[in-house]
Amino acid sequence: MRNQAIIGALCCAFWGYSAFAAADDAKPAASRPTAAPGYSVKTITPIYNQLLLVPMPRGFDQAYEEAKPVAYIQESVLSGETVERWSQMITLTGRKDLALNPNVTLPKLAMAIAGGFKKDCPDSFSAQALRQGKLDGYDAFTMLMQCGTSPATGGRTSESALIAVIKGARDYYTVQWAERSSPSSAPLPIDSDKWTARYQLLVEPIRLCNRTPGEAPPYPSCTNDKQGKNPPPP
User: Fold this and answer.
1) Which of 5, 69, 140, 195 falls 20 to 30 Å from 15 in CA-CA distance?
2) pLDDT of 153-177, one tens digit each?
3) What percent of the chain has pLDDT over 70?
4) Residue-range domains of the chain with CATH
5) What is the pTM of this model?
């Protein structure tokens, strides 16, 4: 199972993957220093109808990618870690044409994700909404979800995830920064300063751009200011 706690909700409520990141029977990797604040590398990923530009923090390497006809997932972990054994993971997902469905809304997706987390750790669940509004002109909702004991590691770690859900021109996207640490039988305290800083580093600079026919990496239409950007829906 990949990303079960985060997208498991989306699996049942429109996605196609699960939510706690890969279950494993090994001990979690030792925590490694995260990238220094402000240091990141812009990555542009073509996902169905748009290009998703994300400032990937330094120190993360892409470890897994799968593109299906209607569902996409990409996972990056700290250098030296794997998708089975990690301390931090950044995940990008996409769901083709889901934004065209009038029955799918950001509040419904947020509730589905929160419900999936809470179901897996009802006694140690905590959550906080971080941002709601426009992200590069598109509707977005960002929240923090935490489980004091993660079922993906058999309760040997906790798991926290910053999750941004973005409604694109035609597709829905999520950008997630997950972290495992020491387990707790009680809800984890929310470190607002840390997760706000990560939001500013990873989520705030996100851009969605048009896909230009025949354009190859590094996708200059998306890197050159606002050229190539899809006008957001009204």
Assistant:
1) 195
2) 999 999 999 999 999 999 999 999 9
3) 79
4) 39-209 (3.40.1000.10)
5) 0.83
